[in-house]
Amino acid sequence: MVNLKINGIPLQVEEGTSILNAAKKVNIKIPTLCYNPDLPPWASCGICIVRMEGSPKMVRACTTPVAENMSVVTHDSEIIAVRRTVVELILSNHPSDCLQCPRNGSCELQTLAAEFGIREVPYRKVLNGLPIDDSNPAIILNPEKCIRCGRCVKVCQGMQNVWALEFLGRGIKGRIASAADTPLGESPCIKCGQCAAHCPVGAIYERDDTVKVWAALQTPGVYPVVQIAPAVRVALAEEFGLKPGSLVTKQIYTALRRLGFKTVFDTNFSADLTIMEEGTELVKRLTEKSGEIPLITSCCPAWVDYMEKYYTDMIPNFSTAKSPQQMMGAMIKAYWAGKAGIDPDQICSVSVMPCTAKKWETKRNDDMKSAGHGYDVDIAITTRELARMIKQAGIDILQLPEEEADNPLGPYTGAGTIFGATGGVMEAAVRSAYFLVTQKELGDVNFLPVRGLEGVKEAEVDFHNGTKIRIAVAHQMGNIAAVLDRIRAAKQAGKETPYHFVEVMACRGGCVAGGGQPYGCTDEIRAQRAAGLYQDDTQSTYRCSHHNPFITQVYQEFLGAPNGHKAHELLHTEYAPLPLYSK
């Protein structure tokens, strides 16, 4: 431990702690722009400068470790003047179209300019006239607004191991660009949106499809149907002032109806459906040797894109089950439309997702047209986009009465709701796979070894019939290589696989921290959102997917058996190798 003072306040912190994080211990905020707790600090912006008492030298708080008997001054007239100048210099190379910017009201640079009371910039405005890159189906790159903080590059290269973004040029001509300066839509980008989630300004943001949704809601003859993903219910309330993890599921249903949606379903239901399909697939691969082991989950579209580009030899291991979003889209147009007496060609199927890659997934291949009425999901919007729509409509969501989702594709189990957290798909699958193998119910459905934010989690499930299933859970794309390399090495050596079942989610913490969730996510917020999902799980009437009576109903009325002919037509897909750079 190290003893020091910050602005005269004595404190003790662990050796190696940065001045920036030490100051937080005594509730002193040092301003930053390039720093993000998910990333290693690299002192790019210079706004976090502080000095030692009695010394004129200034150091950067994010990268300077504390030292014994150090006495730090974080705010004085000279430090504030320097910080103000840094912000003014950044603004001199930044567009001033804040009213039209997608980050207006949530921009970190805008917030700093307001805090420093900057009304005029004393430097000549110098812009490079860089064009917007809108070639990507999920996210848009506006390099003119880049402040060169480096967050997106560090996320894409370090956290995600995708390497779709890099810096080009030097000095005032420096800019953010996709790899090899190709259009972003032709780069190795997997559309996860973590670059947008970590960008402090409006340089990278999700493609806004709310205009399309408004048009569908207001066009005569169109029947708008909507589904909401598990992670949306524990994050949307943040946009309206509540703490992360606050459950507002039933208020969301009400808000969606007030927006104009005629039928409201819940993707948690199709998460239960996914478990029935994926769990049955796992059992068949284990007992009938009908496919490669390990089985790897396929719910995350960014991971699917990554696998098709970087790990094509793992395609035989991938579950053929579609994601819950796509299963719901197929069921709406192929099953529910007939049951409700509605022409499926008149349906506009909208999904609300925590993920930007879901926009791309809706048109991933022709399997996404399995119901035969255009794409199964017509429009996917993010949690942030739904929040904007609710605000545009003047709806006070926190004061709304609670309503239920519509039957039969609305009611869900606790297993369906935990899909939104890392380990949730695995836990839900274990609950039902245990039953499918043993025909007995799992005694304790809480499978704790797969919970939490450790990058790779491993466990073993004893099915009490001599079958032990070794599982692995990986989240944050940069962590998956270690798992897949172990599998590949065993396969090449002709040895037994180290795992039978592997869950992968592209984003750290899983969908609760997807690229379309409210900005400012940290590990603390990830944990709070996940806790909200586990709360929803524990208070559910049913906690295993195979207990959902409406799941039983759709199989009896329409699908037949899990993994049967009809189910494969509608609920499963195929994969193919993709080039890293496409045209």
Q: How many helical elements?
A: 18
Number of structural domains? 3
Question: Any idea of the CATH class of the largest domain?
Answer: Alpha Beta
* Helix-residue proportion: 25-40%
pLDDT below 50 for ≥5 consecutive residues: which ranges?
A: none
β-sheet strand percentage:
5-15%
> If you consult CATH, what is the topology of the largest domain?
Rossmann fold
How would you sum up this structure, described in words?
The protein has 583 residues and is of the alpha/beta class. It folds into three domains: 2-75, Ubiquitin-like (UB roll), CATH 3.10.20.740; 123-206, 2-Layer Sandwich (Alpha-Beta Plaits); 211-571, Rossmann fold (3-Layer(aba) Sandwich). Helix content is 33%, strand content 13%. It has 18 helices and 17 strands. It has helices at 19-25, 77-92, 108-115, 151-159, 194-198, 210-218, 249-259, 267-287, 301-310, 324-340, 357-361, 383-392, 414-417, 424-438, 480-493, 523-538, 549-559, 565-571; strands at 2-6, 9-13, 49-52, 58-60, 70-73, 139-141, 165-168, 175-178, 204-206, 223-228, 263-266, 295-296, 347-353, 379-382, 456-462, 468-475, 501-505. The strands form five sheets. Strands 2-1-5-3-4 form a five-stranded mixed β-sheet, with helices on both faces. It has a four-stranded parallel β-sheet with strand order 11-10-13-14, sandwiched between helices. A hairpin with a 2-residue loop joins strand 1 (2-6) and strand 2. The longest helix is centred in the middle third of the chain and has 21 residues, at 267-287. The radius of gyration is 25 Å and the shape is globular. The mean pLDDT is 95.
